[in-house]
Amino acid sequence: MGTKFNTIRVTLLLVLLLSPAVFSVPNEGMVRIGLIKKKLDQINRVAGDIDSKEGKLSRTPLRKYHLQGNLGASDDSEIVALKNYMDAQYFGEIGIGTPSQTFTVIFDTGSSNLWVPSSKCYFSVACYFHSKYKSSQSSTYQKNGTSAAIQYGTGAISGFFSQDSVKVGDLVVNNQDFIEATREPGITFLAAKFDGIFGLGFQEISVGGAVPVWYNMVNQGLVKEPVFSFWLNRKIEGEEGGEIVFGGIDSNHYKGEHTYVPVTQKGYWQFDMGDVLVGGATTGFCSSGCAAIADSGTSLLAGPTTIITQINHAIGASGVVSQECKAIVSQYGKMILELLVSETQPQKICSQIGFCTFDGTRGVSTRIESVADEIVGKSSDGVHDAMCTACEMAVVWMQNKLRRNETEEQILDYVNELCERLPSPNGESVVDCSSLSSMPGVSFTIGGKVFDLAPEEYVLKVGEGAVAQCISGFTALDVPPPRGPLWILGDVFMGRYHTVFDYGNMTVGFAEAA
After folding, report:
1. Catalytic residue at 108?
2. Judgement on whether residues 212 and 95 belong to the same structural domain of the protein
3. pLDDT value at residue 355
4. What is the C-alpha separation between 495 and 514, in angstroms, rounded?
5. In the prediction, which pLDDT does 109 show?
6. Which member of 164, 195, 275, 295 is catalytic?
7. pLDDT tens digits, residue range 325-348?
8. 290: closest CA among 64, 396, 445, 441?
9. What is the pTM of this model?
């Protein structure tokens, strides 16, 4: 695998204990899998704080994105998604083997492998609380034995590849490679109500180069069209979580027409996205474009800290004061403003001040390392990275306010307020439940169309009555160019908008969910 270049930790103290009920209905080359969710509650949220001593895997992280490989390389085969799935809300059932052995899985468009616990998993407690695949009981089992491991945060599941038939609804996929997990460290998988993961991403990010189940469904002629679609039910009442349709689209699940955008980089279902608006006003950062991923395995919306901070400020979310950010504004705020007014290229300002170096397109950390640092085995990279990032955020915020002809005092006060709204290190931001009606809408521009999210759609409520808490549906995720800036549009967005994954045309489509 390539060298690990970045670790993004996004944490939400929510744990979803999911019910295993499921149904499937065939319909002219399409198969429907019912998705079930369970309501959030405070008890499970608090329980999510528990860490495992083995590997320090936590139940709390929503998802951890580790993109691996050389970002400058054209070959993305080394780029894999590394995640914690405890907060993925929607799942269904599949069968493996003959006769079929049933497993509850998360249908995840952000990964590409199928894995379930193995009967040969002897030393991980989690395996004893989930269904386990028994190869000796399947007449269609074929031995492979190649070792495999998928990293999740600071732990991993590991095992080996096997081959067998996989049943999805009434469809049977023959000769499917999948991973038998023989090690599932930590409490993460012990507490989970799902057994494994059913990846729906591209083969380019498949561990071991295994052909994804979806590819084989298409190649074996099991579906009418090379399309699958998600309808996620975000309504509180009722237990029906939604539906995933393989081979087509159910017109009862959406209103109007879908807006389609091309997949720009195979691996994830990645596409280009335009500006992000808060209360109808531009946030500036993505006005010239950002990348985005439609990801059914992530609960929240993750995006660049620069924008998430502006959103947190607008909705009154409580974050942690960034000392680096406030120091930049205090000492260099007026200088940045003067450089902007003098029409200095914004992307060069932080390098001119000395916090970043200019690589020809943007500022990057100077990464100064002193002899003393080298002697004591420390690096100043983290400090310089933080200052460079804080400077670049301040430039974007100030530039955005200058366009509105605000005064120097107004701009500096505003940027200082944004510094105070920087997301907390664990990614969690809390909002006042009684203030939903006064919060602004947040909108995303995709394919030239604006997709709106109302406060009640991007705020997650945990608990009831006096003990209820409201969590911002936005969390920070910073991925540098050329892979980023990157947005992860998870279930908060996909619940509002019916999502079509068109493998035949290599497009992703969104329409208002019905």
Report:
1. yes
2. yes
3. 83
4. 10
5. 93
6. 295
7. 888 898 899 999 999 999 888 888
8. 445
9. 0.72
